[in-house]
UniProtKB/TrEMBL annotation:
Superkingdom of the source species: Eukaryota
Species annotation: Castilleja foliolosa
Protein name as catalogued: Uncharacterized protein
Length: 74
Protein backbone atom coordinates (compact mmCIF):
# COMPACT_ATOMS: atom_id res chain seq x y z
CA UNK A 1 0.00 0.00 0.00
CA UNK A 2 2.79 2.39 0.87
CA UNK A 3 4.56 1.88 -2.46
CA UNK A 4 1.34 2.71 -4.31
CA UNK A 5 0.94 5.88 -2.29
CA UNK A 6 4.56 6.77 -3.03
CA UNK A 7 3.99 6.29 -6.77
CA UNK A 8 0.78 8.26 -6.91
CA UNK A 9 1.66 11.13 -4.62
CA UNK A 10 4.37 13.69 -5.15
CA UNK A 11 7.57 13.16 -3.25
CA UNK A 12 9.47 16.00 -1.68
CA UNK A 13 13.27 16.08 -1.78
CA UNK A 14 15.82 18.47 -0.36
CA UNK A 15 18.61 19.77 -2.60
CA UNK A 16 20.88 22.70 -1.88
CA UNK A 17 18.62 23.86 0.91
CA UNK A 18 15.57 24.21 -1.35
CA UNK A 19 12.53 22.01 -1.46
CA UNK A 20 11.95 20.52 -4.87
CA UNK A 21 8.74 18.75 -5.70
CA UNK A 22 8.86 15.87 -8.14
CA UNK A 23 6.14 13.48 -9.16
CA UNK A 24 6.80 9.79 -9.26
CA UNK A 25 3.59 8.83 -11.04
CA UNK A 26 3.54 8.11 -14.75
CA UNK A 27 2.35 10.90 -17.00
CA UNK A 28 1.88 8.68 -20.05
CA UNK A 29 -1.33 6.81 -20.84
CA UNK A 30 -1.77 3.17 -19.98
CA UNK A 31 0.42 1.21 -22.44
CA UNK A 32 -2.16 -1.57 -22.85
CA UNK A 33 -4.84 0.93 -23.87
CA UNK A 34 -2.50 2.77 -26.23
CA UNK A 35 -1.30 -0.43 -27.88
CA UNK A 36 -4.81 -1.77 -28.35
CA UNK A 37 -5.97 1.55 -29.79
CA UNK A 38 -3.17 1.58 -32.36
CA UNK A 39 -3.76 -2.08 -33.19
CA UNK A 40 -7.44 -1.36 -33.78
CA UNK A 41 -6.63 1.55 -36.10
CA UNK A 42 -4.13 -0.58 -38.04
CA UNK A 43 -6.64 -3.42 -38.36
CA UNK A 44 -9.33 -1.09 -39.69
CA UNK A 45 -6.90 0.40 -42.18
CA UNK A 46 -5.89 -3.07 -43.42
CA UNK A 47 -9.56 -3.98 -43.86
CA UNK A 48 -9.92 -0.93 -46.11
CA UNK A 49 -6.89 -2.02 -48.14
CA UNK A 50 -4.34 0.38 -46.72
CA UNK A 51 -1.17 -1.54 -45.87
CA UNK A 52 1.04 1.49 -45.11
CA UNK A 53 -1.09 4.33 -43.69
CA UNK A 54 1.74 6.86 -43.75
CA UNK A 55 1.77 6.68 -47.56
CA UNK A 56 -1.95 7.39 -47.85
CA UNK A 57 -2.60 10.28 -45.46
CA UNK A 58 -5.65 11.53 -47.36
CA UNK A 59 -7.48 8.25 -46.82
CA UNK A 60 -6.38 8.16 -43.20
CA UNK A 61 -7.81 11.66 -42.69
CA UNK A 62 -11.13 10.60 -44.26
CA UNK A 63 -11.33 7.56 -41.98
CA UNK A 64 -10.60 9.61 -38.87
CA UNK A 65 -13.13 12.29 -39.86
CA UNK A 66 -15.74 9.61 -40.56
CA UNK A 67 -15.16 8.17 -37.10
CA UNK A 68 -15.51 11.63 -35.51
CA UNK A 69 -11.88 11.80 -34.37
CA UNK A 70 -11.06 14.92 -36.40
CA UNK A 71 -14.40 16.71 -36.70
CA UNK A 72 -13.30 19.79 -34.80
CA UNK A 73 -9.72 19.88 -36.15
CA UNK A 74 -10.27 20.23 -39.90
Amino acid sequence: MLSRVNRLNASVRRRRGKLLRTTTAKASPDPKYTASMYDEIENRLRIRGIEEPSKDLGTLKQILVANSYLDHVF
